[in-house]
Amino acid sequence: MLRLQWLSSSLLPSFNPELLPESLSNGRLCSLNSFRPLLTLKPSPKCQYSWNTQQQQQQSPFEPGSQTDSFSSQTRARVAAAALPPRFFVGHSIYKGKAALTVEPRPPEFTPLDSGAFKISREGFVLLQFAPAAGVRQYDWSRKQVFSLSVTELGSLVALGPRESCEFFHDPYKGKSDEGKVRKILKVEPLPDGSGHFFNLSVQNKLINVDESIYIPITKAEYTVLVEAFKFVLPHLMGWHTIANTITRPEDSIRVNNANPRYGGDFEWNR
């Protein structure tokens, strides 16, 4: 009887999407995998598959030298794909005459601890992609510019008043040898008539001789949609949604507190 043991083998190293070449980041939707946190795991030396043998030992059809050895890799790939959780692709786009804006949330990353628990290693973010217009209802995504919003920057946009403005500066190479060669400035300013906001992204890239500014007007209704989406996704970007799985049963919380008296809020109040 075949018994499948699926081990997380996806290696998802931390990366800065603002450093990706445009040819490698032309996807306009992102995979959230049900917005499950990304796990930064090392390759496991264990085999991904195990088989239960009968009392009478017999050769596995996937062992080298068997008649089906030539199909083993394809069969394993199909079995592995069937074991993966469902994947979802989400994003929100706004199209205007001068440019288009796509907003995509990216989940946080976690690393395993020796205790078997997981610790957040990188918070999630929201990726903004600006593409200039190339014609009527046509946009040149090969010239797009990207800007990643952190949870704090999202908080600034959520708290922004109808007559207020804010500005964010990014240097993707900060702390590296190419620091200062790429400058990105995102300005969010109110429209003169108070009907919404301007999103203006300016990018100066001395590495590839790019100096471009893309702006798009966002109506009050469109901005409200963005703000509500940001509010909803913020706890997920921080990884706080994962705690819900550990406090669903009161007896589990009691057991953890008894095992570790320094755990939880009781320790804070008893000091």
Task: From the structure above, extract its key features.
alpha+beta; 4-stranded antiparallel beta sheet; disordered N terminus
Structure description:
- It contains five helices and 16 strands.
- It has 271 residues and is an alpha+beta fold.
- A hairpin with a 2-residue loop joins β10 and β11.
- The protein starts with a strand and ends with a helix.
Shape: globular
Whole-number mean pLDDT: 77
Helical content class: 10-25%
SSE pattern, N- to C-terminal = EEEEHEEEEEEEEHEEEEHHH
**Biggest beta sheet attributes:** 5 strands, antiparallel
Overall radius of gyration: 24 Å
The termini sit apart by 56 Å
Report the count of strand segments. 16
Number of helices: 5
Uncertain parts: 1-13, 21-34, 41-64
Tell me what portion of residues adopts beta-strand conformation.
25-35%
Structural class: alpha+beta
